[in-house]
Structure formats: C-alpha cells, structure tokens
C-alpha cells in the first residue's frame, strides 16, 4: 500500500493548488503539516495559473492499494 500526503492551497485568484508528496512519515502530525504549508505560502514556493498559494485549504494522507494483474 502506498501513501501520499496531499496538501491543497487556495490561490490568490480563488483557485486550488495541490502539492503531493509520496511516502509521508507514519507519525506525521497536523501541526507539522500546517507548519510546512505555512512555510510554502510565506516563501512563495509554488505558483499556478490562478496565482501563488495564499491560504491553506486542506491536507490529507491518501492510501492507495494497487494489485498488479499483469506485469512486464
């Protein structure tokens, strides 16, 4: 099972910007994620067609279970 941390921001023009990071730590906390998201906003690290990340919208850890049927 793979896991991804998905952080979603509201941009300056009201759009959404999603940043996904693979394999987050098992013990990651909401405070750590919020701190990282605030740093991304403060340092203007990411931008999109609807502007820079301006506010936190949401964050979640998404689990994905893949069952390969045919492999090369």
Question: What's the count of strands?
Answer: 4
Q: What's the story with the biggest beta sheet? A: 4 strands, antiparallel
Helix content range: 10-25%
Backbone shape: globular
Distance between the termini: 20 Å
Characterization of this structure:
It is a single chain. This protein has 72 residues and is of the alpha+beta class. It has one domain. Helix content is 18%, strand content 46%. The chain is built from 1 helix and 4 strands, in the order ββαββ. It has one helix at 30-42; strands at 2-11, 16-22, 47-48, 51-64. Strands 2-1-4-3 form a 4-stranded antiparallel beta sheet, covered by helices on one side. The chain is globular, with a radius of gyration of 15 Å.
Q: What's the topology here?
A:
Elements: E1 2-11, E2 16-22, H1 30-42, E3 47-48, E4 51-64
Antiparallel strand pairs: 1-2, 1-4, 3-4
Task: Give a brief outline of the structure.
The longest helix has 13 residues. This protein is α+β, with helices and mostly antiparallel strands.
Features:
globular; 4-stranded antiparallel sheet; 1 helix; 4 strands; alpha+beta; 72 residues; 18% helix
